[in-house]
Amino acid sequence: MSQASRALKAYRNALRATSVAFKNDVATLNAARNEIRTHMKSQEDPKGTNRSIDERLKLLDEVTVFLRRNIVQGRKVNEGKYRLNIHKDTELGDNDDIKKKKDGLSNGGFTGCCGGSGAKTT
């Protein structure tokens, strides 16, 4: 597949991902699409890291996957309740990994966020 057709495919997939992620939020949908469009038109890497076209296309593919799997929008239904837009591509995890005590994360009775030092637990 030529580089131009790969770029077009990546661009279309990214736009589709924004439609899924920001379905009922027109302002955010338009902002995301404008950001993608701007970066696709740019001849230079926006971060100035001089990434190759292939690297930039790979990054766009990763952003597309992230938008589809990890962005979940919610809207307030009433006080304290929200309705989430969970769709078929949303990555649903479980808390089993969080619940497991990992080796090396405790520090002699001291625990903190992510296993760092904190207040002494008794």
Helix fraction bin: 40-55%
According to DSSP, the number of beta strands is 2
Query: Which overall shape is indicated by the principal axes computed on the Cα atoms?
Result: globular
Strand order of the largest sheet: 1-2
Main β-sheet: number of strands, strand sense, barrel status? 2 strands, antiparallel
What is the residue-averaged pLDDT? 80
User: What is the number of helical segments per DSSP (H or I, 4+ residues)?
Assistant: 4
By secondary-structure content and strand pairing, the structural class works out as mainly alpha
Strand content: 5-15%
Features:
mainly alpha; 2 strands; 47% helix; 7% strand
Task: Please outline the helices and strands.
Elements: H1 3-21, H2 26-41, H3 53-70, E1 74-78, E2 81-84, H4 96-99
Helix pairs in contact: 1-2, 1-3
What would you say this structure looks like, in words?
The protein is mainly alpha-helical and 122 residues long. Helix content is 47%, strand content 7%. The protein has 4 helices and 2 strands; from the N terminus they run H-H-H-E-E-H. Strands 1-2 form a two-stranded antiparallel ribbon. A hairpin with a 2-residue loop joins strand 1 and strand 2. The longest helix has 19 residues, at 3-21. It is globular, with a radius of gyration of 20 Å. The termini are far apart. 10% of the residues are buried.
Summarize the structure.
The chain has 122 residues and is mostly helical. The chain has helices spanning 3-21, 26-41, 53-70, 96-99, and strands at residues 74-78, 81-84.
